[in-house]
Structures are given as C-alpha cells and as structure tokens.
Amino acid sequence: MSAPLRAGLVGLGMMGRNHARVLSQLPGVELVAATDPRGDQHQATRGVALAADLEQLLTHRLDYCVVAVPTAHHAAIGYKLAEAGVPALIEKPLAPDLTTARALAEAFDTAGLIGAVGHTERYNPALEAMRLRLADGALGDLYQITTRRQGPYPPRIRDVGVVLDLATHDLDITTWVTGMPLVSVAARTMARSGRIAEDLAVILGELSDGTLTNHIVNWLSPLKERITIVTGAHGCLAADTVHGDLTFYANGSAPTEWAAAEVFRGVSEGAITRYAIPKREPLLREHEAFRNAILGRDAPIVTLRQAVATIAAAEAVLNSAATGSSATPDLPRAPRPRFSAADHLLEVATPSSR
C-alpha cells in the first residue's frame, strides 16, 4: 500500500479551517503541517504540526499545498511554492488582477507543476447536473443565463470587492456549464456600505453563440441567495446551489383554445421536475479531484489557465463599470516571461489567513 500524499496548508482562517477539516479526512492524504501568522486560533489542525512560516512549512517534504489566504497574497506564496517544486491548490480568485494571474500561471507552467484554483461551485451537484443536461441538449438552443448571488457582507473579505470575490463564481459557472467563452460585458457597480471596494454589481454579458447573461451580485442583502437559471427553447433549468437542487421547468405542450391568449405566441407552463441527484460536499469533491490529479489520474480540476480567463472576465466587468462602456475580456495568452522567484519578493512573510 502506497504512503499517503503529504499535504500542507497555508492559512487557518474561515476557508483554511474548512480545508483543514477536509484534508484531515481525505483518503490517501495526510495533512502534515500548516502555517498561519496568528497560529491555530480555532484548533483546526487537531495536533498537526504548526509551522512558524512558509519556509518552515516547506521543510515537511510536501507533495502539495493548499493556499487559503487573502487574494492579495496568493502570488507571493504561489511563486515560492513554484520555486520549491510544490503543486498547489489556491483559493479563488486566483489573483487581484489579470497581470498577476497570468504571471502566477506562467510560474507553475515553467516549473512543470500542477496548479488548481478553488472554484468550488463547479463541484456543486446542482450545477454539475445542469452542465450534463445542457450538454445532452435538454433545453435546445440557449437564450439566457441568469444568476443571483447575494447576501450579507462577510467581514473576512477585506482585500477585494464583490466582483472578484463573488461574481467570479458566476462568470466561471456561466462559461463552464455552456462550454462557451464570454465575449462582452457591460456592468454597473456601487459601494453602499462604507467600503472603498464595490459591494454591489449588475452585469450583462454575451457568450460567443449570442446567449445573453446577467448577474446580480451584492453584499447588501439579508437574504442569502445562490441561484442559476438557464433558459432555452424547451424550457429552463434552475439550480439552487445553497441546497444543491436542480429543477426543470418545461414549456407547455397543451394546445391553446383561448383566442385572446393565443395571439401572444409565448410559451406556456408545462411540467415541473425536481431531479433526484447525489449530494456530496463540493469542497470535499474539489479536494478529491486535486488529489487524483497529483496522483496522475484524470481529474476535473480548475486549472490556473482557466482561472486566468475568469480574472480576465472580472477585470472587464470592473473596466466597464469604471468607463460606462461595454468591455471585452482580454483572453489571449500573454507572452511567456522568464520566471524568476526573486522578481516577485518571495521573502515576504506569510500573510494573515482568510
């Protein structure tokens, strides 16, 4: 029987604690050490070695590392892991801007390492089921994708606004479930809670086949909502990712006998089906996929290059909101720079946890 993979963890804040919980029960993996400048305040590691900093963490002969710190510090830690030859699963968003995201992806490419980003919604059972049904043509031609992601402000998020923190979920989901890139966006943002960064965004977009997208995202609502609705020629699919439910609303097939209503030529309400789908924790499935990728198996990880495309979309949203004009995500790959760890200030101390 082969020895378990040796995993490390950087950051023991809210997300870090969840990663520690999953890593401690993941078959084939042993969480051997973690680090956070504030220590393990919540006893998340349950006796696992607590390293003073990233340098000490790397002395534990890691097979891979999970990074769960504020977005602004992803690059500094990621460059150090790439230099040390350690694959990494990095929390989303990958970076606070497109230039940094591309450079971080290049660092892992240059080192020949597996890197993944924690876009956990891709492992939500409702969205996985939606993607499969769309691929099977359940809705026919697609018309529109609508998402609503709103709720109270999480105090742990202090370094980015709602677009990078929340809307990146929806921008990623939209292209993932359809398999089509986002070609244009028009957006408006506001800051209403006294923060410098935006806490509300309304985004209109278009996919490469002409499908329209719209996203409502905020940190201002007492109602927590995580909804994705895809409308097509045969009806619509609605995913509630808080509960992992997927419901199909079919167009009605009964003939219309009311002449006054028939002139509208619109669809009618048909059968409603809530699918019975297996429900497993998305974060656990994300870790299983990354473990399998490290072991050389085919696994559905979210690669750093895929995450770069999401940052490009988010940056286009912010540019549109700033200029009042539509924007096109900058998707072409940047020229490959020569990677030098020293260029990226790797000596920085391990940052506070997220």
UniProtKB/TrEMBL annotation:
SUPFAM superfamilies: Glyceraldehyde-3-phosphate dehydrogenase-like, C-terminal domain, NAD(P)-binding Rossmann-fold domains. It holds the Pfam family GFO_IDH_MocA_C3. GO terms for molecular function: nucleotide binding. Residues 6-119 form the Gfo/Idh/MocA-like oxidoreductase N-terminal domain. InterPro entries: Gfo/Idh/MocA-like_OxRdtase_N, Gfo/Idh/MocA_Oxidoreductases, GFO_IDH_MocA-like_dom, NAD(P)-bd_dom_sf. Residues 129-236 form the GFO/IDH/MocA-like oxidoreductase domain. PANTHER family: BILIVERDIN REDUCTASE A. This is Dehydrogenase. It comes from Micromonospora sediminimaris.
